[in-house]
Design a protein that fits this description.
The complex is a heterotrimer of chains A (325), B (80) and C (477).
Chain A lengths: L1 H27 L1 H8 L3 H8 L3 E5 L1 H4 L11 H8 L5 E5 L5 H9 L10 E6 L6 H4 L4 H8 L8 H9 L3 H17 L2 E4 L2 E4 H7 L4 H10 L5 H19 L3 E6 L4 H4 L7 H18 L3 E4 L20 H14 L6
Parallel strand pairs in A: 1-2, 1-3, 3-6, 6-7
Antiparallel strand pairs in A: 4-5
Chain B lengths: L2 H15 L21 H15 L5 H5 L4 H12 L1
Helix pairs in contact in B: 1-2
Chain C lengths: L5 H16 L5 H16 L1 H23 L3 H23 L3 H13 L16 H16 L9 H9 L12 H9 L6 H29 L11 H32 L17 H4 L5 H20 L5 H20 L3 H19 L1 H8 L2 H19 L7 H11 L16 H20 L3 H6 L3 H17 L14
Helix pairs in contact in C: 1-2, 2-3, 2-7, 3-4, 3-6, 3-7, 4-6, 7-8, 9-10, 9-18, 9-20, 10-16, 10-17, 12-13, 13-14
Classes of the chains: A alpha/beta (325), B mainly alpha (80), C mainly alpha (477).
């Protein structure tokens, strides 16, 4: 018994030490660490004061090869709605898990009137993107410092985050899971592996298969559950929610190597639209808005030209009910 | 031979191999207690002891030796 | 799994809790189940390989012990050793034949007919395999009878705190400890946690800080000056030490929580005056294992048969340390490492008398320290990669003084400078003050100082580095 008493006493002292340590860390080192390890923290600070927050991924900000303007959709939106405070929390590689962490990192005040514009990217349901081993671990580690309300705990999560093992497990899972997925095509069952074999050598055909040949399986339902969590979180704060369904390159889906893919993708699209309708949220459906000319490059992507981004921003500003200049 | 007789005859062997004319070993002396009693000298000691007492030790027996007293016991059992 | 990470520590605490909740007679069961369970959780293959080695050695020892005639025991031991060595070669060195085939095929200009086997080395394999071999030897020479309880034997071979990177425990010490009842003692907890904390600090903080200073030097074609490369090499050696000794402290501390005193693996290695002295201070459990089970029998056997005896001794030490090198891995780098150690140790044995004269004066001692460290720094570079061409490139870089205008300089107000100063302070503190015995040092301090020390370490661990993650250098063996 005496041993247990001594151990308990030491544990209490330890808790006290950790409490003081957390205070010291928050005062002196936390702001510096945020600058160093969490590149999105300044955007979070802007979002705190904004009326509307755009949560986006590469569909918002991508400007790689063939890009004709580095103004993002959210930046165009800010120009169109310049009497409103609009903030963007967007980066290449963001997924629903990232958006959820970002929203939870925002403080909410009673009676606040905020609108969250959440990107719904059809490609984010593809198995290989769900199991993204490149961006996901990096973003997760960057968001460690805003995960909870205890700065020292967040710092511990940053220190002990292991991106390499995450990468390894995600890569393994990716390889095994998605190539075995079965799809019904004209009454025949094929696996993704078989379809990829048929399209081998044709990188364009392959890219569309990789991105759109998924069916709403368990992994996709988990991704949808994250959207549900986001909607729930936003509603519980009394904020408004708009789902922005970004464009799908339907022209690209009609490739001769897989003519069935367009119908298949539109079927999955219907499932998604019905899901969000049932969740009672406003959906701004731009998924069929743009043509091939508004996309950058011919392989499957959700990267738009300046013209394409402007069209999206216009559609958004109309839907958000602000007069267009 | 008795323990004390063997111990007496071991002294000059140790003194010569370990180059220490004033060295005196007892039954409890181990390699750790004596400077220069390293593996090279240990092998030389064993060879000279075998030659002097006209006995032959097996590797198994040699590996079990921990102190001078063990060497004496081994010599006694080999002579028996 | 990172032995300094929260998952391992969490697992450890859960097992310790279960351990003290059950009656004494079931405590070894808890250890065995936890150890096999951990291996299986990481990879079923690891658990499978461990159980094969365990069952094989468990039965073999009982078989050896059943033989009463020396010759029969001899034969039984030989068979058991052959079985173990065959397994060791098959699993760990399966590519040694492929590599030998490569040498011939390069020379002959024809394809290598021996296929490469890409077996993943089971975690802790080299460690528990050597422990099993030592156990067979001790049963053979009747140091103790063969263990009849499979649970105890699993606990001895696979005790999970030491599965990652040792220490190598002897059956003569650990098996009796497993049979002694253990009670919940405050000292065990206190000392155990101190060791773990200190180990985690070395492993995560110091090792990481060193890594951030030296990583660019080792990138091929990097613009590193010769001087910086040399500094990086020295720091790398220190990194191997902090990681390995840090891990060992975690293992020792974890062992204390269960009431065991595991073998200390380090004793101020940077104070060594010769390479022989160094190996009495570095990875002590492995070097003493090699000395007791390979070098001593081999040297006695050879030197009693060939003359002059010194050649036998030299050959024995060379072979023993070559094997020690190969124990780490069968790539040429480890072979070279072993050869360097073996050659220099052989020379040291022969020159002991003359060196003693020099070591008795201060200048001689300093020269001894510096030369020993230089040898170890050079040979440690062979640990950094499997490719000896890369290692040789690093040496070329280190000796290239033409690139003195490298942009990699230390600025007084930059973090690498602060880290370097902290590393030097740590090194002096660790080797000269703590002397690889943190428990003893902390015992002599008052409670306030102790808690200040703990707080500093905990803060540094949580908030002092970017990431705790880096591959454990000694875990791959």
């Amino acid at each position: 018994m005496r041993v247990l008493q001594r151990i308990s006493l030491k544990l209490i002292v330890l808790l006290g030490v950790l409490f003081l340590m957390n205070w010291a860390y928050s005062e002196w080192q936390y702001p510096e660490d945020l600058e160093k390890y969490t590149p999105m923290h300044s955007e979070l600070e802007s979002a705190q004061l904004a009326d509307k927050i755009y949560l986006g991924d590469c569909s918002d900000v991508y400007c790689g090869s063939a890009c004709d303007s580095d103004t993002s959709v959210s930046a165009f939106l800010k120009i169109l709605m310049n009497d409103q405070k609009i903030a963007a929390l967007s980066a290449n590689g963001y997924q629903p898990s990232s958006y959820l962490t970002l929203i939870k990192a925002l403080d909410s005040k009673v009676g606040e009137d905020k609108t969250i514009i959440l990107t719904l990217n059809h490609r984010a349901f593809a198995d290989h993107i769900l199991l993204d081993w490149y961006y996901k671990p990096i973003i997760e580690q960057q968001l460690s410092l805003v995960q909870t309300r205890i700065p020292l705990l967040n710092r511990a999560m940053l220190t002990f985050y292991d991106p390499s093992s995450k990468r390894e497990s995600l890569t393994l899972a990716k390889t095994e899971q998605w190539k075995n997925t079965s799809i019904e095509i004209n009454g025949k069952t094929k696996t993704i592996a078989m379809l990829m074999e048929k399209a081998a050598g044709d990188s364009v055909a392959t890219s569309y298969l990789e991105d759109f040949a998924f069916v709403m399986g368990e992994a996709q339902r988990e991704q949808l559950a994250l959207f549900n969590d986001i909607i729930h979180e936003v509603k519980s704060r009394g904020w408004k929610m708009v789902i922005h369904y970004v464009p799908i390159n339907l022209d690209g889906l009609s490739h001769e190597k897989h003519s069935w893919l367009k119908d298949h993708a539109l079927e999955q699209r219907q499932i998604l639209l019905q899901h969000f309708k049932a969740m009672d949220v406003q959906v701004l459906d731009h998924s069929t808005l743009l043509s091939q000319d508004d996309f950058l490059g011919i392989k499957s992507n959700s990267h738009y030209t300046a013209n394409g981004k402007r069209k999206l921003a216009l559609g958004l500003s109309t839907a958000l009910k602000v007069p267009v200049e | 031979m008795s323990e004390s007789e063997i111990l007496l005859e071991l002294q000059p062997i140790f003194q010569s191999v370990l180059s220490n004319p004033s060295l005196v070993v007892s039954t409890e002396t181990t390699a750790h207690d004596v400077d220069d009693w390293d593996s090279l000298n240990h092998a030389t000691l064993i060879a000279k002891i075998q030659r002097h007492f006209k006995v032959k030790f097996s590797l198994f027996e040699v590996l079990k030796l921990k102190k001078v007293g063990d060497i004496i016991q081994l010599i006694q059992s080999s002579q028996a | 799994m990172n032995p300094a990470g929260p998952y391992f520590i969490g697992f450890l605490l859960a097992v310790v809790l279960a351990y003290y909740l059950v009656p004494n007679r079931f405590r070894n069961h808890v250890i065995s189940m936890a150890s096999v369970g951990l291996l299986a959780w990481i990879d079923l293959w690891f658990a499978g390989a461990f159980l094969v080695v365990t069952l094989m050695n468990f039965s073999a020892a009982i078989w050896i012990d059943s033989k009463h005639q020396l010759k029969q025991r001899h034969q039984a031991l030989l068979l058991s050793l052959l079985g173990n060595i065959a397994l060791l070669v098959a699993i760990k060195h399966s590519n040694i034949f492929h590599r030998i085939g490569d040498l011939f095929s390069n020379w002959l200009g024809s394809p290598n007919p021996i296929p490469a086997l890409n077996w993943i080395l089971p975690l802790g394999f080299s460690y528990y395999m050597f422990q099993a071999l030592g156990y067979q030897f001790e049963v053979y020479r009747k140091s103790h009878p063969a263990e009849k309880s499979l649970i105890n034997f699993i606990a001895f071979l696979g005790f999970f705190p030491k599965i990652f990177a040792g220490p190598l425990e002897r059956s003569t010490g650990f098996l009796p400890a497993l049979k002694t009842p253990r009670v919940l003692e405050y000292d065990n907890f206190s000392h155990g946690f101190r060791l773990i904390l200190w180990g985690v600090f070395k492993f995560i903080v110091i090792s990481n800080w060193i890594g951030s200073i030296i990583e660019t030097s080792y990138i091929p074609d990097s613009e590193t000056s010769g001087l910086y490369m040399m500094l990086s090499m020295v720091l790398y050696t220190l990194q191997v030490y902090t990681e390995f000794s840090g891990y060992t402290d975690i293992a020792l501390g974890s062992g204390r929580l269960f009431g065991f005193q595991l073998t200390q693996n380090f004793r101020q290695p940077f104070l060594a005056k010769s390479l022989s002295d160094f190996w009495r201070r570095w990875h002590i459990s492995l070097s003493t294992w090699v000395m007791d089970y390979i070098y001593t029998p081999l040297s006695l056997w050879i030197s009693l048969r060939i003359s002059p005896r010194k050649w036998g001794i030299m050959a024995s030490i060379f072979i023993s340390f070559l094997l020690l090198g190969i124990w780490h891995g069968s790539s040429w780098n480890f072979v070279i490492f072993g050869m360097i150690q073996g050659s220099i140790l052989a020379i040291e044995i022969i020159s002991l008398r003359s060196r003693k004269k020099h070591l008795s004066n201060p200048l001689g001692r300093i020269a001894g320290h510096i030369s020993t460290m230089a040898i170890f720094v050079v040979s440690a570079q062979f640990f950094k990669t499997n490719n000896y061409h890369e290692t040789l490139n690093w040496f070329r870089k280190a000796l290239d003084f033409s690139n003195s205008n490298s942009s990699l300089t230390f600025e007084y107000n930059q973090w690498p400078t602060y880290h370097l100063i902290a590393i030097l302070i740590f090194f002096v503190f660790d080797q000269f003050v703590v002397r690889n015995n943190i428990e003893k040092w902390l015992d002599k301090r008052n409670a306030v100082l102790r808690w200040l020390f703990y707080s500093l370490l905990i803060y540094a661990i949580i908030a002092g580095t970017e990431s705790s993650v880096q591959p454990l250098i000694y875990q791959g063996f």
